[in-house]
């Protein structure tokens, strides 16, 4: 049994031991995943600035009722790079490869992962029978889910990872307390947090400094 950290509370929690595996997507890209539990197959698709480690608490909670597959989306962890032809269709193909491998008929997606789950369900309507989405970043009314991107790209190009992370939080409407902390306070705090995370990262997990740049592709 390993330990995982609840991102909301910071508490250290027990997590069931998991196995790992990989599948090859349609373009040959390797998609790695973690697997835990027993029962019908369920795929959890993580959101932006996340990798499979971020869903292990949820996977553990579901493990008594499902065989849970938690893939690292492209460009993260055990999976291959985004590639020059990256688009939503590639991510849907990644999920198809995992569905065909696992036989899963259930899929859950968070944030940008919800868009991937939705596209996958549209592409495989006879296979994915149950689809759950949480906070998909859809353009509704005058709201633009990508208005934050230009500032984020400038900060990323300048090597300001903490600033880019703050821009993502504030631009995507993050509902945690971080959204209410002034930028001039939040940037140095997150800079320290990024450094601490890099030192304390568990084997097999992806440090946040490697995940911040992946928001370019999510956008």
What's the shape? Answer: globular
Order of helices and strands: EEEEEHEHEHEHHHHH
- Return the domain count: 2
* CATH topology name of the largest domain: Rossmann fold
Briefly, what CATH class of the largest domain? Alpha Beta
User: What's the total count of β strands?
Assistant: 8
Between the first and last Cα atoms, what is the distance in angstroms? 35 Å
Mean pLDDT: 92
Per CATH, the superfamily of the largest domain is: Alpha/Beta hydrolase fold, catalytic domain
Structural class determined from secondary elements:
alpha/beta
Q: Characterize the largest beta sheet: strand count, sense, and whether it forms a barrel.
A: 6 strands, mixed
Strand content: 15-25%
If strands are numbered along the chain, what order do they take across the biggest sheet?
Answer: 3-4-6-5-7-8
Low-confidence segments, ≥5 residues, pLDDT <50? 1-13
Q: Give Rg in angstroms.
A: 17 Å
How many helix segments?
8
Map the helices and strands.
Layout: E1 2-5, E2 12-15, E3 19-24, E4 30-37, E5 41-45, H1 56-62, E6 67-71, H2 88-102, E7 106-110, H3 112-123, E8 130-134, H4 149-157, H5 161-171, H6 183-200, H7 208-211, H8 215-218
Parallel strand pairs: 5-6, 5-7, 7-8
Antiparallel strand pairs: 1-2, 3-4, 4-6
């Amino acid at each position: 049994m390993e330990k995982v950290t609840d991102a909301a509370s910071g508490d250290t929690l027990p997590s069931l031991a998991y196995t790992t595996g990989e599948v090859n997507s349609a373009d040959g890209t390797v998609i790695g995943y973690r697997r835990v539990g027993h029962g019908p197959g369920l795929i959890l698709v993580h959101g932006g600035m996340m990798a499979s480690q971020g869903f292990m608490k949820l996977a553990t909670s579901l493990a008594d009722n499902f065989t849970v597959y938690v893939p690292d989306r492209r460009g993260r962890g055990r999976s291959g790079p985004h590639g020059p032809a990256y688009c939503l269709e590639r991510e849907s193909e990644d999920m198809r490869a995992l569905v065909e491998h696992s036989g899963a008929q259930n899929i859950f997606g968070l944030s940008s992962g919800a868009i991937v789950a939705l596209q996958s369900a549209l592409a495989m309507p006879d296979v994915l029978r149950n689809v759950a989405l949480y906070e998909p970043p859809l353009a509704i009314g005058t709201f633009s889910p990508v208005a934050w991107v230009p500032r984020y790209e400038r900060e990323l190009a300048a090597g300001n990872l903490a600033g880019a992370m703050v821009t993502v939080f504030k631009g995507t409407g993050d509902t945690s307390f971080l959204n209410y902390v002034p930028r001039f306070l939040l940037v140095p705090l997150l800079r320290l947090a990024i450094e601490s995370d890099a030192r304390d990262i568990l084997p097999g997990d992806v440090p946040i400094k490697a995940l911040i740049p992946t928001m370019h592709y999510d956008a």
